[in-house]
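Dear U.,

For the methods section draft, I wanted the exact inputs and outputs in one place so we can describe them consistently. I've listed the two proteins in the order they'll appear in the manuscript figures. Please don't edit the token lines directly; just add comments below if something needs changing.

First protein:
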Amino acid sequence: IAKYIPDPFGMKQTKVLLSENEIIKMAKGYDMEGNETAYWNNKFAEPVGGIHSTAADMLQFIKNPISGSDDASNLSHNLTFGDVTAGIGLTWDIYTTKKGYLRWAHEGGTYGFSSLLMIYPELKSGIILMTNNGDHDDQAFYDIGTAIYLSLTDK
């Protein structure tokens, strides 16, 4: 995984395997009722839920698709279904906002952890939200990301 994601993007803290010291520093996850959850460990699905990262590394990741300099990243944003008003790329939801800006988004989570990444290439901006509480299908997460986007475009 390092060859294709963290290394080319300069993400020095993003990895699958963590040291004991890194595991101790990890946040605890909590479900919607506030109960602590176990860390998700599924060797067969590491690429979709077993990659550990930091906010700083995710901001580094956002720079690449905005620059358009990476062929693999560019390919992942090509439509495979729908159109730019509401479609899907290889790994991204593709959407045009009411203000006419293209948005690439991807969300996910594991037990007690959620993340949402929204990239607005025309604004040269991205938003990463990560939490250690709740359900990654929570609409409130998208609402927070949308509120941040609106604050960027309401100038």
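Second protein (the one for the lower panel):
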Amino acid sequence: DVIMSSNSWKAIEQALARRPGRIDHVIQFDNPADEQRRSLLTMFLREVAYSAPLETLVSLTEGMAVAQIKEVVKKSVARALAARTGSAPLQVSIGEFQHAARVIRDNPFHPHTTRPRSMRRDPDALRAIRPVQVPPGDGENPSDPEPGTDGSAR
């Protein structure tokens, strides 16, 4: 069995959608209502400093699916991070949210890349969004002992 997922039934290739036996069941989930979007935004923004009123963001994401709302937040943070100068604290403005929402809304088939062009040149810039923790002894550091050679079971 195969499970497919799409934010838009219209995006499914019609030859695939209409062919008997290809898609047996369709379950449609409605886009989140105001209260659900408020909860989602609160969850997605829990570690993000932002200056926009939450109710404005709820209105801005009206009609969007959960994945699109999450992408708006990710794009907004990435854009704010790219625009940040020096060691200024990261603060996401309403302008960044509006830009991200417009990109997502205007192009429902957007490939959902979250890095602005300026950040593609600096892959370390993304670590400020989601820190990467490498477990000790992963073999990447030449000073790490080989597993089992220091008497420990790894």
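Candidate sentences for the figure legend, describing the second protein: The helical segments are 14-18, 34-44, 54-60, 66-83, 94-106, 117-120. The longest helix spans residues 66-83.

Thanks,
Y.
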